[in-house]
Write a structure and sequence with these properties.
Length: 414
């Protein structure tokens, strides 16, 4: 093809080539735009690694004793199970814990949701003090959905929650009432009723002993149980004419000292001076099993007197942020679970759920049965009654017996 022909050909095809070149350019530009947009999306909106959420810090105060169970068998295990909760537990005096919370209330920390105590384990009387000072929140049935294990509790534990108006959840019961320990070396047929107990005391002067309330738990509960057994109104100690008369009649025949505590009574029992004393089931079984009192010591229950429980309660202060309230509720629900309650058998306690017994190892169940004399099923067959309300207990100090305090009690009984 000559040069002219080539030129003509170029002119003829140039018009067609130009749009084709523009289309390619546009396509290329579009592709570049798409690539750039996609790269931007990937860069700016790519999934970020999830932020590590800081655990909820929960501060727990233990004021009611039974500390090993709460810390070693419950809190430490719960802390391992729940990585989202970090628990600090401290054993502290009853008065110190109450004063600490009152100070925070006065400092306005409740209104600021800045309370630095998030859960407290308290005794029966202490719970009432926290309520009166308006320091705690109502838990049940407000947060029923987070406390499903309440339904698994034995009846007397549920009754105590009801008596507390839902401001506390029962976490432990010390079983008292018609519980006694005796030296079988000296006592062949232990008394089986209040009338038989009175007769036994009269025939064995100085051999029955109990500590002075309110300093001795077994001593306090012996007096309350006496009133219960004689049909008194437990809410009105000032009307306990039959109970005070009963105690007055045996006073000259009981062990002459009413020490402010139970330890001296146990010591006199171990030494053979006292042969029969009121006791708690777990406490009595433990000192027998551990050899703290002679091997001929036996625990038994006067069944007509029934059993009562001295409860511990879990309470939540006011001014606790909601995320910490939820964490505290989860811990409470774990404490009262059959799985956690099964650990109570390590301390010769039957726990507060019937299911816990079956979850404990067989050798542990056998040990508790051996030293207490009862399985949880057998224990639940014995009638149980609740202690008088804390208000009634506090009002005992106004009776002629002055809460049967060590100072005034003997003068009243003489």
């Amino acid at each position: 093809m000559c040069i002219r022909d080539r030129y003509i050909y170029y002119l003829m095809t140039a018009e067609k080539k130009l749009p084709r070149l523009k289309k390619k350019t546009v396509i290329v530009l579009l592709i570049l735009v798409v690539v750039l947009v996609a790269a931007s999306i990937i860069f700016f909106y790519r999934p970020m690694a999830p932020a590590v959420k800081k655990p909820v810090e929960l501060k727990v105060l233990l004021t009611a004793g039974f500390t090993d169970f709460y810390i070693k068998d419950v809190i430490e295990k719960f802390d391992e199970m729940r990585e989202d909760i970090d628990i600090t537990a401290t054993a502290i005096g009853k008065d110190e814990a109450l004063s600490r919370l009152k100070a925070q209330k006065e400092a306005g920390m409740f209104e600021k949701n800045a309370t630095d105590v998030h859960l407290i384990i308290v005794g029966y009387a202490e719970l009432e003090m926290y309520k009166k000072e308006d320091l705690i929140i109502k838990i049940y049935p407000v947060y029923k959905e987070r406390l499903n294990n309440v339904e698994k509790l034995i009846p007397i534990a549920k009754e105590y929650i009801s008596r507390a108006d839902g401001y506390g959840i029962v976490t432990h019961l010390g079983y008292y009432g018609g519980v006694f320990v005796y030296r079988s070396k000296f006592v062949k047929d232990p008394p089986e009723s209040l009338s038989e107990l009175k007769e036994w005391i009269e025939n064995n002067p100085g051999r029955f002993g109990y500590g002075a309330p309110p300093y001795s738990g077994p001593g306090t509960l012996f007096i309350i149980t006496t009133a219960h057994g004689l049909g008194e109104d437990l809410e009105k100690p000032e009307t306990w004419d039959k109970a005070w008369e009963y105690l007055k009649q045996i006073e000259d025949k009981v062990w002459p000292s009413h020490p402010p505590g139970t330890g001296p009574v146990i010591k006199a029992f171990a030494g053979g001076e006292v042969w029969l004393m009121p006791m708690a089931i777990d406490w009595g079984a433990r000192i027998i099993a551990k050899g703290e009192i002679p091997p001929d010591s036996k625990l038994y229950i006067i069944k007509e007197l029934g059993l009562t429980g001295e409860p511990h309660f879990a309470i939540i202060p006011k001014g606790v942020p909601m995320e910490k309230v939820r964490a505290a509720l989860d811990l409470i629900n774990y404490i009262i679970s059959p799985e956690a309650q099964a650990n109570e058998l390590k301390y010769y306690s039957h726990g507060i759920t019937a299911e816990a017994w079956d979850l404990a190892p067989e050798d542990l169940r056998n040990e508790v049965k051996k030293w207490t004399g009862f399985t949880i099923k057998e224990l639940l067959e014995i009638p149980m009654w609740t202690m008088p309300s804390p208000e009634a207990g506090l009002s005992m100090s106004l009776t002629p017996m002055k809460a049967v305090s060590a100072a005034s009690r003997k003068s009243y009984l003489k």
